[in-house]
Structures are given as C-alpha cells and as structure tokens.
Amino acid sequence: MRRSDPMPPAEKQNIREYVIQHILERIERGELKSGDKLTNERELSERLGVSRVPLREAISALSTLGILEARQGEGTFVSEYNPGAIGKIIRTYRLFDRSLIEEIFEARVLLEADAARLAAVNRTDEDLSTIKEAMRRHEETVRRYSEKEADIATVLECDNEVHLGIAAAAHNNFFLQIIDTVRHAGQSRHIFAEKYTVNPLHIEESVAYHGSIVSAIEQRDSEAAYQAMREHILHIRAALDVDKLKEDFDGKRE
Asked: Do both 106 and 165 map to the same domain?
C-alpha cells in the first residue's frame, strides 16, 4: 500500500524531525486547526511510513512546546494557543537543528531583557500596579508551592503574568507578541520537573529576582532593569540540567 506522505531518505532528515515537520506544515496550511484531534497513532504511523517510537518522540516534543496537547483517554489535540505562530518560529529559525532548550533561553535573554529596559522608560503608574499585583500573586503561589499546596503549573502561570506584565509595560505590541510566543514554547511544566533541576531553590529565588527587576522599572532605571532581567533568565537556565533536557526533548538519545 502506497503512503500518502512518503518519507524522505534517512540521510536527508531523521525520522523524528520528519514527523515534526509534517505536523507543523499541516498546521501552517490550515489542515489542522486549534482543537482538532490528531489521527490515532497506528494510522498516522502507517500514513507516514514510520515506526511508533519516533512518532511518539515527535508528538512528545510538540506537546512540550505547547503545540499539541495530550488529553488522557481522549487522544492528542492541536493546542488552543496559536500553534501556527510557534510552529513558524520553530521552522524559520530551525530550532531543532541544535538544542531547542538552549535557543529558547537565548531568545528569552535577548527579548525579555530589552523589554524590561523599555518598560523602565515607557511604563505608566497603571502598568506598575498591574506588575506589582502579578508579583504579589506569584510570591504567594511560590510560598504555597514550597509548602506543597500548589503545583508547578500554577507557579508557572503566575510567573508568566509577571513577565508578560513587564513586556506589556514596554508598550510595543510586536515585542509583547513575540515574547508571549517564545515563553509559551519554553515554559512547560515538564521542563521544570524535579528530574531536570540542579537547583531546587530556583523557584523560590525567582521572587527576589522579580523584586529587583520591578524596583528598577519603578525607578525608571532602564540599565538596571535590563541587567536584572538578564541575570534572572540566566539564573533559571543555570538551574536546569540542560544536557538531560536535550537528551529527552531534542531527540538525541543513543
């Protein structure tokens, strides 16, 4: 039986990346839309002419990025969060050519540090109040997390509110949309699981970093805001076992 999507020669593209590109292309063409359910594993592996192991790895990688969403007992669905935008960034910048995790953090350092600098210049009193309220919720959630009363997903959601509040205070919508997309691609509860953490205190330590960033923004000290945000994101990256993340999520298993 002839496959509808024949696989390219192995020397040109490894199987896992072929499956990833196939799914991303279907999303970009509008053949798969937010909320659509993927074909079941058996049918998809037969259609693409690949085994189930690399197929599962591809789906796992796209789920980690938030492009796909696995629902227990229901199957795998295209995320409700603008998966096309994330997919285009991945394909345009070829994020699977080397460490996806490394590139996400590189992008965050560049984008979010400059956004903090702009926020210190452009923020309004209302922006500052919004950021401080988000920071208060984050601090409270981190406290509850340390007491095992909140999960990592809730912490990440509150952390996202702080960072997007800062990006919004820069008053550059293009900046905000790019930062939102990159953060969504990299802010997975799986990435921050305990097995990938070399500094288990980094969640609690983020509260102090947020305080330094927001203090600089309040004082309109753009350079201090830039440096504080840069140090914060580098601190998060240093807290993770990137080699293990590469092994598990970038398809570099032996």
From this structure: yes
